[in-house]
Amino acid sequence: MTKSSEFDRLSAMTNLREILAVATEFERTARDFYTALIPKVSKNLRYLVEELADEEQQHFNLFTEMSERKDLEAALRARIKRPASDRKFSDCIHLPDLGEEPDDQAVLQYALMREHAAMEQYTALADCTEAGPVHDLFRYLANEETKHKNELEAIYYEIVHSGGV
Questions:
Q1: Residues near 68 by beta carbon (within 8 Å), at least 6 away in sequence
Q2: Among candidates 99, 108, 89, 105, which has minimal Cα distance to 29?
Q3: CB 3.0-4.6 Å disulfide test: which of 29, 34, 40, 165 passes with 52?
Q4: CA 119, CA 143: separation in Å to the nearest integer?
């Protein structure tokens, strides 16, 4: 095996502790972003942004609790293949500046992009983890993110295509 292919193989690997650290940061930045956005968005979207902030807080809490569980220490050290969606997911930690009066459409587009990235990442992680609490957590979150994305798509269609934006 050449040095290049060995490096590629090793860089394609990670462990669940590293994955949880990135996922926790993903959820924290989303929570903080949506919380700061609440007073800036139109009244049409305020309830939605409040819900998104709350959902991100719940996910943050789940990841924090999971990473602190002593009974999962071995699972968290286990090496897994880094999901193909990992880079896109990690990129979501960098937040856009939507200004002081963000457009409803821009807020919804951003939220949809984040939900889609999370859905892909958590699905990939569920697919590459063994049965047990970590797998169950990722499967649960993949389903949650899919529901959120579907709900946001319906709201987006209603607002954007009904002349709301």
A1: none
A2: 89
A3: 34
A4: 7
Give the angle 30-26-72 at the CA atoms, nearest 5°: 130
- Tens-digit pLDDT profile for residues 39-77: 999 898 899 999 999 999 999 999 899 888 888 888 778
Claim: this prediction has a pTM higher than 0.70: yes
Beta strands in the chain (DSSP E): 13-15, 79-81
For residue 21, count CB atoms less than 10 angstroms from its CB and return exposed for 0-12, middle for 13-18, buried for 19 or more: middle
145: domain range? 3-161
Residue 82 and residue 14 in contact, taking contact as beta carbons nearer than 8 Å: yes
Buried b (16+ CB within 10 A) or exposed e, 62-99: bbeebbeeeebeebbeeebebbebbeebeebeeeeebe
CATH number of the domain enclosing 12:
1.20.1260.10
